[in-house]
TrEMBL record:
One GO biological process term: methylation
PROSITE patterns noted in UniProt: SAM_OMT_I
Its EC number(s): 2.1.1.-
Positions in coiled-coil regions: none
UniProt key word Ubl conjugation: no
Species name: Christiangramia antarctica
GO function terms (MF aspect): methyltransferase activity
UniProt keyword list: Methyltransferase, S-adenosyl-L-methionine, Transferase
Keyword Transferase attributed: yes
Name under which the protein is recorded: O-methyltransferase
Amino acid sequence: MDFNNAYLSVSREQGEGLKRLIKENNIKNIVEFGTSFGISTLFLAQGAMETGGRIITTELITSKAIKAVENFKKAGVSELIEVRIGNAMETLKNHNRPIDLLLLDGWKDLYLSLFQMLEPNFHSDTIIYVDNADMADTRKFLKTIGENKKYQLKSKFGGKAVLITIKK
């Protein structure tokens, strides 16, 4: 499959759920792994507009990131979103600010290493939203995280997504 032109995003139902999650939890600091054309990011931005939040999103494929930036401008939310182009393991390497919401929606085989790299930025109320939870690589990631007693996993949208929270 040619991922350069594939629109990969959460469903409308998931997008509305993300927006609600952001508002209900007063989420401000959002990191998204896997911008694609920015469709999912636009749902995040709708929530962030109401909480005064900001989004850092990262996309490997330059042409997709450029199209996403155009979409953000058209939607009038550019000022809320910082787009980083390149491998997320590089673009997020020095991230040192608290993360309220981490959306994992990029290459599934990077979920674990990205999660571990960003984990020092999690706090007691951090929510990790894992998309494509029904895919094999994602299930391996979730099994690994599920073995850590620190985290609680909750399936959403018929198993398409999983919310990871820190046990209180």
